[in-house]
Design brief:
By secondary structure, the chain is an alpha+beta fold. Helices cover 34% and strands 31% of the residues.
């Protein structure tokens, strides 16, 4: 399922590394425009930075996507994700993911007594939990998480967001590549977005001496990443259809597949590799 990290601490660490690297220049608090014809970044003070290739990771609602008029496919799972901090008894340093008709629950390792739960709930069940109310139904959440979580208490809502995702029709233009959430904002149930971005960076790095062919990215790199994207999307669509739908078919297939996969370590490894892309 990937790694659980303190995002603020990680970004602070990466920023410190960049500041101490003489080949990296950090520019803060500015608005930028791209001149794709001349391969320049135009800053709001009218100065510019030239580039040979550019990697954009500015998020799902990228203003550069709009600038280049790239169509993005919008997908709604009719779910809302709630991130909660709480105290409970469970195995230390372990993560658990639970699929049910109400949604997908992730039990995450935390720090000392405080741990985290990500509850991605089908919208029609949200009112049963009252996550954003003082009358939060803590007992219902604990029931959903048994036997992995016991003695759940001191639950606090950190934030919530509707689970709407997007996928770009085209993830590159000439010598510009969109990575991460800029390229595809994915359902978070299997950490596929992070793993896919790492795979792309590894592929790009492996051919760095011939990354550009003229003014565009090398066709081999583009073909490999396109194949990875299609495989990733197929895995997510199959998994979400079989395991995440609140329907009779979804509930039956979830129960059957869960038992079938857990009874074979070989099948479990193949499922994680091929379907979840981990």
């Amino acid at each position: 399922m990937g790694q659980v990290v303190d995002k603020a601490a990680l970004l602070s660490h990466l920023r410190a590394l960049c500041i101490n690297n003489k080949n990296i220049e950090i520019i803060d608090n500015i608005d930028v425009e791209l001149d794709s014809n001349n391969s320049k970044i135009i800053l709001n003070d009218k100065s510019s930075i030239k580039y040979k290739q550019l990697f954009i990771t500015d998020g799902a609602n990228s203003k550069f996507i709009e600038q280049f008029n790239i169509h993005a496919k919008k997908i709604s799972y009719n779910q809302t994700s709630f991130v909660l901090n709480c105290n409970y008894d469970t195995c230390e340093n372990s993560a658990v993911q639970i699929f049910s008709k109400k949604g997908v629950f992730a039990v995450l390792p935390g720090h000392k007594k405080v741990k985290s739960i990500v509850a991605t709930i089908n919208n029609k069940y949200i009112n049963s939990y009252n996550f954003e109310s003082t009358n939060f139904n803590e007992s219902l959440l604990q029931k959903d998480l048994l036997p992995y979580v016991k003695d759940l208490h001191n639950t606090k809502l950190i934030y919530s967001h509707p689970l709407d995702t997007s996928r770009l029709d085209k993830w590159y233009i000439k010598n510009i590549i969109f990575l991460g959430n800029s390229s595809q904002l994915l359902h978070p149930f299997g950490a596929q977005g992070f793993n896919f971005s790492v795979d792309c960076i590894k592929k790009i790095d492996s051919v760095k001496t011939e990354l550009l062919s003229g003014d565009e990215f090398n066709n081999h790199v583009k073909t490999e990443i396109i194949k990875k994207r299609h495989s990733l999307f197929l895995g997510i669509d199959i998994t979400s259809s079989l395991l995440m739908r609140d329907s009779f078919l979804g509930n039956v297939s979830s129960t059957f597949l869960g038992g079938f996969i857990n009874n074979s370590s070989r099948i479990k490894k193949r499922f994680i590799k091929r379907i979840l892309n981990i």
